[in-house]
Amino acid sequence: MANERVLFMNQPNILILHLDELRQDCLGCYGNPDIQTPNIDALAADGVTYQNHYTVYPVCTPSRYSLFSSLYVHQHAAWDNHCTLPSGYPTFPKLLRENGYQTAAVGKMHMTPTYLDIGFSDLELAEQNGCGRFEDDYHHFLMEHNKIDRFDLHYESGLFQLPPEDHRFDDCQCCQSDLDLPFYSSEWITQRALDRLDQWNCDQPFCMMVGYISPHHPFDPPAPYSTMYDPNSLHLLPGYTDQPLPFDSNFGISTIRSSKFPCLSNIPDSRPPDRRIPSFLKIST
To answer: Is the separation of the CB atoms in 258 and 232 below 8 Å?
Structure first.
């Protein structure tokens, strides 16, 4: 037992907070003058910030698999959001579990299948709003309380497939959530993570990954955060115009005003890809 405790003292607890589509230049600790991110700023003040960092892949699920496996996408071959990580690859949660860690994941993991075993002994999931994934724990929680997220209804009704020029398109991408704060995904995820920390067995090191749906679109902050920012007082990010350029039907991105800022992410860009590259390089280097 004494040897086990010495080993445990040399095994740090690991807590990973993962936010979906969070931009560097939309954080107070990186100099954004408008967006209030006090909790993230506090973590940054007590840690390390990076100025020249990149994701390994621009698509959600493949980049997550790369994070879990330390492999490039061309190595694990899961190219899109509907692929699964081939069996047999080592992952850091599996390695930690094999070496005595309690491993758990709470929130959005965006895996296929939803409850794929990549090494987390416990999974309590809340998958993307509007994707119809009613089998996860968060949606079960909503149904038990006779609640439903309007974006799930939008998805099921086909409204998300509307062309960008349809006047209803923005209403499907940007609005106040109809869920009260305790039922909103970010609140549920945080509370479940805190409950797991309270239940942690102190005789065993832990690794917990907490994945948030926000600030990924659709942008649906709950009250009171939905009125936190006046869109007329916000500063444009470098490279953005006062008015959106016309939509391209094959490259349509809606004009999102202040609704994504409460969700901590970017103002979308309606420019064609070749016109976005200079601004991207300026922001990223």
So the answer is: no
